[in-house]
Amino acid sequence: xxxxxxxxxxxxxxxxxxxxxxxxxxxxxxxxxxxxxxxxxxxxxxxxxxxxxxxxxxxxxxxxxxxxxxxxxxxxxxxxxxxxxxxxxxxxxxxxxxxxxxxxxxxxxxxxxxxxxxxxxxxxxxxxxxxxxxxxxxxxxxxxxxxxxxxxxxxxxxxxxxxxxxxxxxxxxxxxxxxxxxxxxxxxxxxxxxxxxxxxxxxxxxxxxxxxxxxxxxxxxxxxxxxxxxxxxxxxxxxxxxxxxxxxxxxxxxxxxxxxxxxxxxxxxxxxxxxxxxxxxxxxxxxxxxxxxxxxxxxxxxxxxxxxxxxxxxxxxxxxxxxxxxxxxxxxxxxxxxxxxxxxxxxxxxxxxxxxxxxxxxxxxxxxxxxxxxxxx
Length: 377
Fold this sequence. Notes:
This protein is of the alpha+beta class. It contains five helices and 25 strands.
């Protein structure tokens, strides 16, 4: 083996090999590069590892505290989190090449995990390996977000009401689902200030307490987009912050349309009752006498003057007695069982043995099949 002509400053032995070929020789001189292999490896550490890692996790939502904020990591359990934290805290010597490593967790109890870390690498042409054990302590706490939820914190209220009626249970449930879906979308973008604090049924409808005014406005707008109607907002001064700035709480009052999809109304225009199909924008529906499409004028919007006759839920199935002509069909009255001649709408199936009908002050009418609010996906 060749001799370098230089001597180890620690033990005095002549150094074998070419010093210029060692890692870092072409940059700033590392004092350790002048040592012989024996002295170099005597104090060499392949891995730099902390003595212990403390991981702060929220016991409510599972978020992890990193740096100065809480982060949603989506880990299946805290072992996954411990592996990530240890992996990020380990350092490998810069002179090492072809490094391979693996981390094996050992669960001691619910809050303590021992991480066995095995490393191998090549240093000065020599294969070296090292194992370090890093204890991980899981500290269960409550994150800022969960603390605010538990404390009932909110900045906005979304009220669900309806014009000249009380919102149905279905409408209220749908509004709540809309709010929860909207919040979930915001959470998916990393917004930890997005949450619903409380949902409460009241005599007039539904009240939802929302974390921020911006979120409340977005929820109100989406409910109106889906179910029709309109909303207004009202500010209320609640306090001042530490800088003396006024803090307002905003109520977003959503008012659903007078009629809802599935209702049967009579516009009293002489053309017969209408099954309401959509109340987004102008009210739209189907004439029960002819099957033609009905749409309220722009001025009437979603609340034309009309009488309520019932709902699709009031329909009863009755027997078709005879098809008289292209404009009339004979069916049994579902209450008196008398044969009655009624209008034949174009959606009527002449081969049908029975049909759904609704009986009201406007008479007996056949209802169309299919769902209402079909465009509201």
